[in-house]
């Protein structure tokens, strides 16, 4: 439910109007990133059903995938398990003129891997110790790093999981791992707190977005990202469509006669 702290529901029309304004600004940011050759990483973390996918979709649905690239890595392969932990993430880092959005990131080690015991305590602690140093190297390489944690409450997560169970087009979003994370709420809370304590650094701070209200969370998150990246509107050349030439003109619809067309059911 899209409600603020006072329980007032944001109307869809208001939300869509505000989202449109922010998406226009994202397009301006895109032009600036391309022209300046900037390299930007946005990390999205949070509990399952916190709204990462919907927020990322709101960011990317009006911009070019050649500039805004979403990375959602699967579980590591047997080969990747033998590599340096950060190795498979670093290969996805942005080149000039790119914004890379990580839908979950190297912070898996501090979250799911730690809670589910896919990593031991020593590996977990080593990650927490080294992560701020690694992120300092990223920033020193002139890559902008923005870290977002979406925080959803117990009741809202329960409601969203139940909605997935009851909705056939969303059932695919509910995995056995999601059910385990639901069961281990407090283990994830402790893992979150350990992560924030160790990695909420001055050079790469975490920003927490309360996401019980999906609409407001998306707007607040996009607004924060835009305000975090210094940019300005670039002057665009006015585009005018050229006249179509009639040279070599022919009936290009008649030439399709007899081809296989999709049945027009709608």
Characterization of this structure:
This protein has a single domain, classed as Rossmann fold, CATH 3.40.50.300. A 5-stranded parallel β-sheet has the order 2-3-1-4-5, with helices on both faces. The protein contains 10 helices and 5 strands. By secondary structure, it is α/β, with parallel strands linked by helices.
CATH hierarchy class name = Alpha Beta
How much is the average pLDDT?
94
How many DSSP-defined strands? Answer: 5
Distance between the termini: 32 Å
From the 3D structure, determine the CATH topology. Answer: Rossmann fold
Number of helical runs?
Answer: 10
State the CATH superfamily name.
P-loop containing nucleotide triphosphate hydrolases
Shape: globular
Tell me what portion of residues adopts beta-strand conformation. Answer: 5-15%
Share of helix among residues?
40-55%
- The secondary structure category is alpha/beta
Q: Estimate nothing, just give the exact number of structural domains.
A: 1
Q: What would CATH call the architecture?
A: 3-Layer(aba) Sandwich
Unreliable residue stretches:
none
Write down the Rg: 22 Å
Provide the descriptors you would attach to this structure in a database record.
single chain, 266 residues, alpha/beta, Rossmann fold, five-stranded parallel sheet, 44% helix, 12% strand
Give a brief outline of the structure:
This protein has helices spanning 12-36, 52-60, 78-81, 87-90, 112-115, 121-140, 154-166, 176-183, 185-199, 214-228, and strands spanning 39-46, 68-71, 98-103, 144-151, 206-210.
């Amino acid at each position: 439910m899209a409600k603020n702290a006072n329980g007032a529901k944001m109307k869809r029309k208001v939300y869509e109007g505000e989202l449109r304004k922010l998406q226009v600004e994202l397009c301006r940011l895109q032009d600036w990133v391309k022209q300046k050759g900037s390299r930007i990483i946005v990390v999205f973390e949070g509990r399952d059903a916190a709204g990462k996918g919907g927020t990322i979709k709101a960011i990317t649905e009006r911009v070019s995938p050649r500039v805004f690239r979403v990375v959602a890595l699967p579980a590591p392969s047997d080969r990747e398990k033998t590599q340096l932990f950060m190795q498979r993430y670093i290969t996805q880092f942005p080149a000039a003129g790119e914004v890379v959005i990580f839908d979950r990131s190297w912070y898996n080690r501090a979250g799911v891997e730690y809670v589910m015991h896919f990593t031991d305590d020593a590996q977990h602690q080593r990650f927490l110790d080294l992560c701020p140093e690694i992120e300092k190297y990223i920033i020193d390489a002139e890559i902008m790093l923005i870290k977002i944690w979406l925080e959803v409450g117990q009741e809202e997560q329960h409601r969203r999981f139940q909605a997935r169970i009851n909705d056939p087009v969303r059932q695919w979003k509910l995995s056995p791992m999601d059910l385990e994370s639901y069961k281990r709420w407090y283990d994830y809370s402790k893992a979150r707190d350990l992560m924030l304590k160790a990695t909420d650094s001055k050079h790469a701070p975490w920003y927490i977005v309360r996401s019980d209200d999906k609409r407001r969370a998306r707007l607040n998150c996009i607004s924060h990202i835009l305000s975090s990246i210094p940019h300005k509107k670039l002057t665009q050349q006015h585009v005018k469509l050229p006249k179509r030439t009639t040279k070599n003109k022919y009936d290009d619809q008649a030439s399709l006669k007899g081809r296989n067309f999709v049945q027009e059911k709608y």
